[in-house]
Amino acid sequence: MFPFRGMPVWAQWIGSALPLTHFLRVIRGILLKGLGFAEILTFLWPMALFMVVALTIAVIRYRETLD
Predict the structure, then answer these.
(1) What is the per-residue burial (b if ≥16 Cβ within 10 Å, else e) of 2-13?
(2) What pLDDT is recorded for position 10?
(3) The pTM is what?
(4) For the chain, which residues make up each domain, given as ranges?
């Protein structure tokens, strides 16, 4: 909604932690700029890291509910 560089620094930190920010960069790169896999790889690793962290937390919490 707002330009990323126009936001305050603290809001940029929060935005960088959200996977949607990186997903939008991937989509814009593919659709508007025609980037290939090598170019969008830099935007994919934060999403993969978020996925691993979220999955780890979910598995740990699920195991706790079974005990």
Answers:
(1) eeeeeeeeeeee
(2) 92
(3) 0.69
(4) 4-66
Q: In this structure, what token pair is assigned to residue 55? A: 């999955």
The average pLDDT across 17-44 equals: 89
Contact 15, 21 (CB under 8 A): yes
Q: DSSP letter string over the chain?
A: ---GGGS-HHHHHHHHHSHHHHHHHHHHIIIII---HHHHHHHHHHHHHHHHHHHHHHHHHHHHHH-
Judged by phi (left if over 0) then psi (alpha if -120 to 50, else beta), residue 35 lies in beta
